[in-house]
Design goal:
six-stranded antiparallel sheet; endopeptidase fold (from Nostoc punctiforme); alpha+beta
Length: 189
């Protein structure tokens, strides 16, 4: 036992971990999922100036058709750049599931479960090839657990709150997201 304690106290990373306030959730999550920080350049990371078009404003700077849900794009644009915060639920910092829940409540009037994993119970799974605007996309971490969720937009783009970029728009074709993609789901009405 003493040998184990001596070995443990000799480890610098363990000392650093144990010296931190264990209430510091961001630090703890960062240590547990250090390999999950995504090194990517998001497609859109900051709010886009609303250029006037024939249909009105142009949130996210994308090309839209008459069928696109502009309320969804406006709502997402208003959150772009908000930092990620584990357990966060407001514009001071928000995690992925709270972001998805806030958008769904605002745009569709639907209350979703709180965590990414629990949100899998709010959907009917669909093939990725059938994704449409507003569907949810789920990702698993290296431990094999559903740990991330985003809202599908169009053209393989999805909005989410990532640990590295906060609320942003990324591509499902990004190497990290492609590797960790789990399933797509359409919210039950």
């Amino acid at each position: 036992m003493a040998l184990g304690m001596l070995l443990l106290t000799g480890c610098d990373s363990l000392k650093a971990f144990m010296s931190r306030d264990l209430e510091d959730e961001d630090f703890i999550i960062g240590q547990l999922y250090a390999d999950e920080v995504v090194a990517e350049t998001p497609v859109i990371a900051r709010p886009v100036a609303r250029n006037t078009t024939a249909r009105g404003s142009n949130p996210l700077g994308l090309t839209y058709s008459a069928e696109d849900n502009m309320a969804l794009y406006e709502a997402i644009n208003s959150w772009l750049g908000v930092p990620y915060k584990y357990g966060g639920t407001d514009r001071n910092g928000i995690d992925c599931s709270a972001f998805v829940g806030a958008i769904y409540k605002e745009v569709y009037g639907i209350t979703l479960n709180r965590t990414a994993n629990d949100m899998t119970r709010n959907v009917n799974f669909i093939p990725r090839s059938q994704l449409r605007e507003g569907d949810l996309v789920f990702f698993k971490n290296s431990n094999g657990k559903v740990s991330h969720v985003g809202i599908y937009l169009k053209d393989n783009l999805f909005a989410h709150s990532s640990t590295s970029n906060g609320v942003s728009v990324s591509s499902l074709e990004n190497t990290y997201w492609k590797k960790h993609f789990y399933k797509a789901g359409r919210v039950k009405k």
